[in-house]
Design brief:
- This protein has helices at residues 51-58, 156-165, and strands at residues 13-15, 27-31, 46-48, 63-64, 67-69, 73-83, 87-95, 101-108, 117-120, 136-143, 146-153, 167-168.
- The protein has 176 residues and is mainly beta.
- The strands form three sheets. It has an eight-stranded mixed β-sheet, covered by helices on one side.
- The protein is globular.
């Protein structure tokens, strides 16, 4: 008799490059290289959709988690390059298995390093999360020369651990 194969265990987390798109891929970056120093566009703004073209033009290092819980999906990635005022920015959003969201927004650090801070994101004082979940918080700090703002459910301590674990140059583009 042939032995019954054992089921392959499902990993609790996935590397970011294996987190699938939630729906149709949405990856759009605006190249403002044609803009004048006043921020007024003097030529056409081009759109880029290839991360390998965008990454070297950002001018700062992207910090991301190395893994997310299995069942997460990538909603979108966007930003700008060659912005005459900001330099560039990067925004990425995920839906987690509990249907909560995780959004990270990153840009070059322009001022002295700021300490890690979080504040609750409330909607006119009403509680917007089920009682079983921590509130949504918006947190900010810097890793190296990158300013990072992110929003997610969790206690300040948990979110500080998440922030501390962010790694530079994580491959986030889904492989499938």
């Amino acid at each position: 008799a042939t032995p019954t194969p054992k089921p392959t265990p499902t990993p609790a987390t996935l590397p970011l490059s294996q987190v699938p798109w939630c729906e149709k891929p949405v990856m759009v970056f605006r190249n403002l290289a044609a803009s004048g120093t006043s921020g007024i566009t003097s030529g056409p703004v081009t759109t880029l959709t290839d991360w390998t073209q965008v990454k070297p033009m950002l001018g700062f290092t992207i910090y991301l988690p190395t893994t997310l819980p299995n069942g997460s999906c990538l909603v979108s990635a966007s930003g700008t390059v060659h912005d005459p005022i900001l330099g560039g920015n990067f925004v990425i959003g995920y839906i987690l298995p509990d249907h909560s969201s995780l959004t990270l927004s990153e840009a070059p650090q322009r001022s002295t390093s700021t300490p890690f801070r979080c504040s609750s994101a409330t909607n006119s004082g009403t509680k917007t999360t089920p009682t079983s979940q921590e509130p949504v918080q918006i947190c900010s700090a810097a890793h190296g020369t990158t300013s990072i703002v992110f929003s997610s459910h969790g206690s300040t301590d948990t979110l500080q651990q998440f922030f501390s674990a962010l790694q530079p140059d994580v491959n986030w583009v889904p492989t499938s």
